[in-house]
Structure formats: C-alpha cells, structure tokens
Amino acid sequence: GKLAPFTKAYNANAYWSCTFIDEDTVMGLNGQNMDFSEDQVLTIKYKDRTETISLADLARKALENPPAQSDEVKMTWEKDDNGTVTLGFFPEILGVYLRAEDAGEDRILIRQYYDSQEETAQKGAFYTINFIDENTIRLSDGTERELSQDEVLTIEYEDKTEEISFSDLWEGSLPGDAQDD
To answer: Which domain of life is it from (predicted)?
Structure first.
C-alpha cells in the first residue's frame, strides 16, 4: 500500500518516554524534577479518539521490579548435616540483585532489582527448607509438617514456573543439575 507523507518506511511508530524518579516525580527535559499529583494524566490524541493514562499508574508500573527471567538466574543447592536445604539464586547479568519472595504456601517468586548498592556476595537470594527427615519439614513457626509424595516447591520466574518435589529437594536432584558450589 501507499505510505502516508513523511512516514519513514522502516519505523511507522511514535514513541514518548519519561524518567520517573519516584511515584510522585518525573525528570523534566531540562533535568529538573517535576512533581505531579495523583490525578494528573497523560493525554494521547489520535485521529478518531483520545486516551488518558494516569501518570501515577504509569509511574507505579515503571518503578515495579519485575520477576527475573529464568535463563538469567543460576540456582544452587546445598544441604548441611542437620538436613537444612538452602537454594541459592544468583543473577547472571550485571547490575541486578535478586530476592526470593514468599508467594504462598510452598511457592516463591524470584524478583530482580536494579542498581544495587549491595556487595557482590549479597546479589543472590536464598530460600531455606528445614528438613527433619526426608518426609518431614519444620515450618517457620516451629511446627512440623508431614510431606506427601506429590508435594512440590513452586518457583516462579517471569517466563516460566518450575516445580521441584520435596523428595528431589532432599536428594539434590534439581532442574539443570544445580549443585553446591
């Protein structure tokens, strides 16, 4: 088809960007910070319609730390003499650190954070399971829980979810052969 006048054939899209300092502040074009209120919006006018987007919602989304991509995380496994299994999650890209967040019973989310001021040794995240024996774990409140054969630990990443049975966690049989370093 025909191209509209002044349209570049290689990129017919338009872009607008801004840098949010925090949920109430945007960096202006001159480098000066500008505060905005909760009810301020970005208005986008098209030929046939107008859309508005809340600047506060846009800031919250822009400042959110996303879940990590599974291929950018190295998982390690270690078990001590007391039956404590520690999973380590380490970033394979520079400039990020990871956290293992509780996302429900037997479920964790690996989230990445940017511009860490933390030491290299603190860039990883750890998740610990206290086994009493291969069929029993001690919960954080001190109570014991018997495990069934089909119970799993679920690990959520941005691009996939992994399930590892507690028996595999006890034995150290993990996806990608994660082992103690």
So the answer is: Bacteria
